[in-house]
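In practice, a research group might receive sequence data for several interacting partners and want a quick structural hypothesis before committing to experiments. The following worked case mirrors that situation: the sequences arrive first, and a predicted assembly follows.
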Amino acid sequence: MMAINIFELENFLNSILKPWDYDDFCHNGIQIEGAHTINKIAVGVSFNEEFISTAIKENCDLLLVHHGIFGKDFFELKGYLKRRVEKVIKNNLTLMAYHLPLDGHEEYGNNVSILKSLNLNIKEKVDVTFIGEYEDPILFMDFHKQVEKLFNPQPLLVYQNNKFVKTVGVCSGGGSSFLESVENKIDTFITGEVKEQTRNIVAEMGINFINAGHYSTEVFGIKNIGDLIRNSFGIEVEFIDIYNEI
Amino acid sequence: MMAINIFELENFLNSILKPWDYDDFCHNGIQIEGAHTINKIAVGVSFNEEFISTAIKENCDLLLVHHGIFGKDFFELKGYLKRRVEKVIKNNLTLMAYHLPLDGHEEYGNNVSILKSLNLNIKEKVDVTFIGEYEDPILFMDFHKQVEKLFNPQPLLVYQNNKFVKTVGVCSGGGSSFLESVENKIDTFITGEVKEQTRNIVAEMGINFINAGHYSTEVFGIKNIGDLIRNSFGIEVEFIDIYNEI
Amino acid sequence: MMAINIFELENFLNSILKPWDYDDFCHNGIQIEGAHTINKIAVGVSFNEEFISTAIKENCDLLLVHHGIFGKDFFELKGYLKRRVEKVIKNNLTLMAYHLPLDGHEEYGNNVSILKSLNLNIKEKVDVTFIGEYEDPILFMDFHKQVEKLFNPQPLLVYQNNKFVKTVGVCSGGGSSFLESVENKIDTFITGEVKEQTRNIVAEMGINFINAGHYSTEVFGIKNIGDLIRNSFGIEVEFIDIYNEI
Amino acid sequence: MMAINIFELENFLNSILKPWDYDDFCHNGIQIEGAHTINKIAVGVSFNEEFISTAIKENCDLLLVHHGIFGKDFFELKGYLKRRVEKVIKNNLTLMAYHLPLDGHEEYGNNVSILKSLNLNIKEKVDVTFIGEYEDPILFMDFHKQVEKLFNPQPLLVYQNNKFVKTVGVCSGGGSSFLESVENKIDTFITGEVKEQTRNIVAEMGINFINAGHYSTEVFGIKNIGDLIRNSFGIEVEFIDIYNEI
Amino acid sequence: MMAINIFELENFLNSILKPWDYDDFCHNGIQIEGAHTINKIAVGVSFNEEFISTAIKENCDLLLVHHGIFGKDFFELKGYLKRRVEKVIKNNLTLMAYHLPLDGHEEYGNNVSILKSLNLNIKEKVDVTFIGEYEDPILFMDFHKQVEKLFNPQPLLVYQNNKFVKTVGVCSGGGSSFLESVENKIDTFITGEVKEQTRNIVAEMGINFINAGHYSTEVFGIKNIGDLIRNSFGIEVEFIDIYNEI
Amino acid sequence: MMAINIFELENFLNSILKPWDYDDFCHNGIQIEGAHTINKIAVGVSFNEEFISTAIKENCDLLLVHHGIFGKDFFELKGYLKRRVEKVIKNNLTLMAYHLPLDGHEEYGNNVSILKSLNLNIKEKVDVTFIGEYEDPILFMDFHKQVEKLFNPQPLLVYQNNKFVKTVGVCSGGGSSFLESVENKIDTFITGEVKEQTRNIVAEMGINFINAGHYSTEVFGIKNIGDLIRNSFGIEVEFIDIYNEI
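A structural hypothesis for the assembly, expressed as tokens:
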């Protein structure tokens, strides 16, 4: 059975994901140091008790997630957060997290992956949002079907304001506010969040909008990284799917 | 027909809503100065083209909203925002907005109003969140019915983690992140937004959670203020309901 | 008759003026979006009602100025500013502004242009201030005459503390405070502003000082850019001179 | 001959001028500590070599000014500033400065004093600007004459946009940017500075504007404080007038 | 055997120590939440493995310290800090810390306590530094003996620049930089830290200086609070002395 | 006798020490401008009255130090600082200071110099800390002797937690807090400061720790720069040793 050292894994991931290029909302890398040698990795979108418990049942000893522990503040371990950290520590697990680097990566990231899965040609990067283009416009109703299939079984929230789709912006997770920065560049926007003001803004912009879910738009990057680790180190990696309709 | 001056109206509302007590994300008060004497007020949750157009059809000349124009930045009028401002200016309308003061007001605010409508006794204020209490616990299923009735026809998203309800926190609109500040004080939380992490956090906290919609939880304060103006000045005030399921 | 698109014009100007290199006090580029296709450009130093009215009379549909709308703050349109914006919007004009990039540009900027007009060889750039040099010193009285001629009919305010002139610093507009950063490098300073402390500082430094007016020192850059646009696109460009003795 | 201790003088002035109420651009109080017991005070608007030299000739041993040494930065003593500090130290002088407290003081400040000298009744304070009112409007031409007399021999720069004067705002020194905060409250503004944009702004506001000079509007407060010290301690105090037309 | 709830204890201590009055470098109050009902409290200066281990041996279940976990940053649990937190969590302990409130408290604080132990009358508070005074000056050599006795067995570092002692400033722990704020108010300063520049600064100031150790000057406040809790709640409280010569 | 100009000297030192690469706590370069032509340089660790007086006795006219005047604040010259500056100015001396650039320089800096003096091979730079390595581990007791010899007569404070030494981190002066950034990279740390928490942190890390004194660890860089100036300009340079055990 293969085993790897957690600091070597961190160096490997940092060299690929380059967290120093992002102004993020969490520490990217090891957030809780556990046993230094690990045998199996649980990969997932979000760090929570259900994810930890499942990982333990599956005999994983490292948790690698997109949403780890967020926030810059004085040290305070209370309530639900304390219970999560307690479970990690008592089981000698390591917690690693990569946030924005997994949204914006040019090869393994969520946004690039979604565009490629929809057969769009990558055209431009604006912050962590990626824009892709079809050679010829397609009907929105056809595009919609492709998106449904890609994110199945996630229910989509759709605001249609265009009959055709040619240029698509994608910002996974809570990306609805990035819409303004690409207003004049796209006809369709896919993200994982909708706000009260979104419906009217996209109507006034004349842009199609699809909310494909925060969770569902963010499984791509972490899965890619899981595959990369498995292929590079020959270690066992399991994607633990705590599906979340939000 | 009654008419009032927009600066007198602003002074009146400031004296009640005390915007200087809040560290807000927009200017509270007049955001766009139109005709100084106005005859009819359109009251609503959000400033957008549909709201402006309806207000114009209804012969209103002042727009009073909860969500006006947000953000602290250099002056730049483009795209959908430019078209909204253009419509206001070409019709000589005034735009007034009050944001956090309408969430946190002790008498007219959204949060206090929701608690009172559910027959809870006001107990404590934490930032703009209010906490209310029943004398004796009631069944969650009964509480749920009351909430459905209050926000009808808004579909509710519910995470039940408790059979009973006694102490309820309410933070209207985008308040899901305020949950942590009241973790040990409540058994049930009502807000207008749900995030990807919310389901697991409330499960781990053992707290019931109801998302009653950003829009639907924020109609109370602005309606109350509309009524107050009508009663105080005898001027015509109309609530314009651009219902939004988000 | 030639026509151009305002976004193409903005891209063209940004590629030359590189606003991202400056930490400025306003948004550089389109500040108010009007008709997308324009036929005639009004170029001028400052955005105000007199400038807007003249531009309208001259059938201009884009205003390109050095002093647009300044300040980073919450959105608030009131008083004189609201009336200016109203006039722009009701006439479907576009407002574009470039501030520091027009002071500091190496080819088209105010400071470089003034030095060249006085036959000085460009020697060094300190922030947006440029320093130029004569091969041999000339009498201040001769230099003074050249400066009078260049800025005619602007009355000059002069503090002479040197009989000769060899090395001259120029900072257009409100640049009196940049004097300290070039104290040891120049014998003469030209700017567009004088402060209460200036007379004594330049006397103690032994440096000649000429205030040639905020307005008069800032016509060069915007005129150059107007010429550049005319030559590049063949579109009509008119410099509108709202002369200001300050 | 009377003598006083510089720390006692500082305590006395702090108790009256309350520098802790202002967010200023310099340290208010002792800026350079010299001999602890002093016999004669030089009072003036601005700290510069001419002022220091005259004070030394007049046998003063404490300099009390409105404009001392400004700026929050690392310690660096060079060029003209080093020569000023050198002259202070070699002559064992003390430098004391009070800036905003002398503009905004309710009894001794520049702005209140100017309004009272023009027989206006004090009505309101907005930041450090004071607003005064006549019972009945007077002709601008009569008001102008009074202002000329008060600031004689200072040449005034005048923009007249109203025939009458009733409510006057005063902000001494570099106060032109405070105009916007009182736009709706006054018909006439007096300050000590004019900017390129001022002419058009006051024209569009319909407000009379008088620039009475930075220096000339700031002699009042420091003179009042000089008199107060003389009366309170019986020590010799001399106002040193380094007149400056700016 | 008495038991108390950790949240009640926190409320009690907050009501006395008022952490909201301080701009501190750590969270004051519960830093790690353990068992909610506790039976015995370990009180000490600093949180480290030796302190935790001793507290566990003594059957304590709450750690109350002056130096808890410092720093405002993203969540990262690694190396020695992870091992400390691990020991706390695996033993179900609670960690509470109060930092500046224990230096500056008027009754229970370190600085007030040291002054009182040396029979000085409290005179003034400057930030968290307290100043005390003898009615008549005493010889420094006599004062030195008293200080040695008070802090025994802590070796003192002494810079004597005065033969007599009358007015003494005390700032426990790392307080050497507060010396400048009391320069003119004291003849003798006691703190718990010495820096490279201190010797020359106190010589030039003519002030006696005693470094009585960071640890030794900070046992007073936490001991007082331990006594207060024992007396108020009747619960067992033990001071654990991990003596540190620094 | 050689003489040099202070501005040329500053340009020379800046070109080598590159102060713009550091985010420092003081201005690096000329802090007080004295006579422009100087004949002899006093080099030392810290700027204080004893150092100034000795330099004057030795006929030096430029003071070049590692610790000059620190802090970013409003101008205020009082107490001991005023007396130091007064002595500099009255003797027409120039004060130059370089702080972090002398700690972190790759060739002349304190940290590199200490590692080289102990025959360690330079391996890595982390901020201004340098790490060096022996080819084979040596006994700590042998290493200790070398360190004692290097810093003689400075008394060392030693916490031994390892029998062997192979990889050593050095951070001169107040560097104890940089220990955490190299925790996993070294077995031994040398610095010039110890804090109350240090003993326990290094024990828990299992790292040897030597406090060789703030002063004693910081003589290397400034001496090297003194030698460099002497060799480059042929001017007289004298190291003035105001030894300080801290």
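Before designing any experiment, note the following. The two ends of chain F are 37 Å apart (CA to CA). Chain F touches chain C through one residue (CB under 8 Å).
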